[in-house]
Write a structure and sequence with these properties.
single chain, 91 residues, mainly alpha, 82% helix, globular
């Protein structure tokens, strides 16, 4: 396996775990009335490759599910990332 592919896989695993955890932490902080993770930060984690973790965290923690821009935005990010991966792999 090429080193670049190993690095990519490690990155994707880590960023998805981080995105998932961010949704869980933000939900916990919301319940306690504490400082929150910004919506931009949650979207940034998804954009950096953590869209699957973000979607799973959103669903499992039932967090941000009422916001249309999360319900539509996160799956859209995932679709765009998948399309980009397909295009890159076809080259």
């Amino acid at each position: 396996m090429k080193p670049e592919l190993i690095i990519l896989i490690v990155w994707l695993v880590l960023i998805n775990l981080i995105a998932f955890a961010m949704f869980g932490m933000d939900k916990k902080r919301a319940k306690k009335g504490q400082w929150r993770i910004s919506e931009k930060g949650l979207f940034l984690a998804a954009l950096l490759g953590g869209s699957i973790g973000a979607i799973c965290g959103m669903q499992l923690f039932r967090h941000k599910t009422r916001h249309w821009y999360f319900r539509i935005g996160l799956p859209l990010i995932l679709l765009l990332q998948a399309a980009a991966a397909v295009l890159i792999l076809k080259r």
